[in-house]
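How a chain folds remains the central question behind the approach discussed here. In the encoding step, the backbone of a single protein was reduced to a row of integers, each denoting a local shape. We regard such an encoding as a compact summary of how the chain folds. The sequence in question and its structure tokens are set out directly beneath this paragraph:

___
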Amino acid sequence: MSSSSEYGAHTWELLLTVDHQHEDVQKEFLLPVTGDLHIGGLMLKLVEKINVSQDWSDYAFWWEQKKCWLLKTHWTLDKCGVQADAKLVFTPQHKTLRLRLPNMKTVRLKVSFSTMVFRAVSDICKILNIRRPEELSLLKQSGDTLKKKKKKDKNSKEPVTEDILNLHNSPVSSGLPANPGLYSKTMTPIYDPVSGSPASSTITWFSDSPLSGQNCSVLALSYPNCSPEMLAEMYQPRTLADKAKLNAGWLDSSRSLMEQGIIEDDQLLLRFKYYTFFDLNPKYDAVRINQLYEQARWALLLEEIDCTEEEMLIFAAIQAQYHVSKLSLSSEAQDTTCESEVDEVEAALSNLEVTLEGGNTSNILEDITDIPKLADNLRLVRPKKLALKAIKSYWFIFRDTSISYFKNQESAQGEPIEKLNLKGCEVVPDVNVAAKKFGIKLLIPVADGMNEVYLRCDNEDQYARWMAACVLASKGRTMADSSYQPEVQKILSFLQMKNMSSQATSDPDSVDMKPECFVSPRYTKKYKSKQLTARILEAHQNISQMSLVEAKLRFIQAWQSLPEFGLSYYIVRFKGSKKDDVLGVSYNRLIRIDMATGDPITTWRFSNMKQWNVNWEIRQVAIEFDQNVFIAFTCLSADCKIIHEYIGGYIFLSTRSKDQNETLDEELFHKLTGGQE
């Protein structure tokens, strides 16, 4: 028999595996240790034994049998429970992960595999410049949702190459303290609230964010829709049971990635898990708004959420408007390069230098008071009594926010026949592309009502220039405004879209924007292409003046107004019931739904909830409401921890207020969602 002191001093051998990239260095080491050796001391002994000069600061021990990290370096081996049969791997905590974003783009970045998923998602959102990371989480696709895709890949002869955006060298993903960069919340807008693009190229000069430059546009702007053929190959839930499968793979926010079986270079989905979108601001949230728009768009296209035919046409019209606005933006961007932007800055600095030195600036500085003008022959149409119209050609000049017209060009130096002030007027397009009719209807407020004036243009280009000027003037802006050229391009793109209907009749393949890309497969089977085009254009009339960000925000608002919005479904068995039901979890309520008919049976609101808990032994969720209402259920389609976390997460999000800063109370989140497993 040996004494306890002799036992504590006993030395034994521990096999350690090192996860490194040096081919000429061994990976397994057998070290003599004692039970009172702390984890930090074990690291030091191992690094000395490896004898390779490199930065080991990101390395930690992973215990394979127990599926846990040994991160408390002051704990001894005895306190951790490590014995001679333990298999410890000395491995980096930050590893590469592939994330499929809501816009179906894949990014590769380094993520902490040792911190809780809640913290890892927060770090990911900093890299991607997404505020309010508490609304998102990581989802692992279930095997059922991948079956259709795998079957297609099996039959495919050519290997599928995925376009991946690499962000793995970003400071946050490398485990380093990050420069706030684009993510920092300041009083200066970091995005253009109209287009959603970065507010200025100069932002990239002061930021080490990996999203500087083109990468930001990949995440903040939507790109061409997939073809109907590709859409048909993707997983589309047909029943409530199918929809329940979509929510089965949410990762546990209170455990690390490695603890949940995620390995390096695995692919996960980054999705908005909680449907309470707090403080959406176009000046700061271009990426967040775009990813929300994309998640909503794909949910509708894949029929993950139901909507009526009229609602689907509205969604299609908003997508079409977004497409039109983006065409105008990209056509404008083609004429702008980084070099020209730098040249503009250098020119401004030169002008400033001349001014400060007191030199002659008359030939150097631009006259900033010179506002552009339009001058053209247009036809004026004034409605007369007895439904007769007087149509006559005049020489028109558009300056500031007013239109003046003269008998001819030669008399333009004198007094105009009439001067129309367009501030506050209503501008209505009067266009028939097929008939080559390009008219502008102006409803100008006067003392005794509205003065109705029609302008007729000769062609599309002339119409676009004058229509854009009228639209801006009605808002009190001139053609010197930076939005004038994008407005012109948007109108030209809109005319191109208006032309789709006539093209689709004769040659559907000639249409650039296929209407089938804007609606779910159900409606592409119901209607022909030209019928869909006509119906989408009809719904588009009311939203034809929206900007990029406005279109996306309107889409999100329309999505939020759907009856099924924000419902996450799970198959459960209620205590005392002999059949399975579906439980819908929303931001403010739980709904028991009949699995066969889809009809709601009972609704319980979170505001009436007194307490909830989980019996981890039998995996049963129990909830108590006001008036002695008590329910209990087991979850059949997913782990009960997911539903428990959903309830606690929504209650946590309800505590947010605009008075708070963006620092999250992580401890409160885990208290509400972690459970006592």
Notes: The first strand starts at residue 11 and ends at 18. DSSP finds 19 helices and 24 strands in the chain. Residues 26 and 50 are 8 Å apart (CA to CA). The chain has a mean pLDDT of 81.
